[in-house]
Design brief:
By secondary structure, the protein is an alpha/beta fold. It has one domain: Rossmann fold, CATH 3.40.50.9100. Helix 4 links the parallel strand 3 and strand 4. Helix 3 packs parallel to helix 4. The longest helix has 15 residues. It is globular and about 40 Å long. The structure holds 1,3,4-trihydroxy-5-OXO-cyclohexanecarboxylic acid. 1,3,4-trihydroxy-5-OXO-cyclohexanecarboxylic acid binds next to loops.
């Protein structure tokens, strides 16, 4: 059984209510349920978390050291700002997949740069909530 940590950054707890024309109508609970379902068929054990606080995300990344086999992260707005999350991710030697529901590269210029991307095996963006399932499949391939 592989242990996978899925981290979600600020405002993703508001999915279903926030900018539905961009992020769709599914809630983070819906996405978590889909990931749990997918995990069963892939033989993954999933720890799915969300925080609005940069330091909490940093601490969770630090705590995952040596205990997880792969990390999926949608750092939300911190993607574009957080050197602290970038530095924490550098601690890990397991595959990291960056996920975004929308495609930040096709949106405002301030979303075009990602501090996660240089450390990610793959970036999955613009697939909506389905991107999380794609990320799990990708991780499965990488960990096989
Ligand atoms: C997001 C894209 C980010 O630019 C934005 O700040 C988010 C969500 C996405 O999943 O599309 O909060 O990460």
């Amino acid at each position: 059984m592989k242990n996978i940590l899925i981290l979600n950054g600020p405002n993703l707890n508001m999915l279903g209510q926030r900018e539905r024309e961009i992020y769709g109508t599914e809630t983070l609970d819906d996405i978590q349920a889909q990931c749990m379902e997918q995990a069963k068929s892939l033989g993954f054990s999933i720890d799915f978390r969300q925080s609005n606080h940069e330091g909490e995300l940093v601490s969770w990344i630090q705590e995952s050291l040596g205990t997880v086999d792969g990390l999926i992260i949608n750092a939300a707005a911190y993607t574009h700002t957080s050197v602290a999350i970038h530095d924490a991710l550098k601690l890990l030697s397991v595959p990291i997949i960056e996920v975004h529901i929308s495609d930040p590269k096709t949106r405002e210029a301030f979303r075009h740069h990602s501090y996660i991307e240089p450390l990610a095996a793959t970036v999955i963006a613009g697939q909506g909530a389905k991107g999380y399932k794609t990320a799990l499949e990708k991780l499965y391939g990488l960990l096989d």
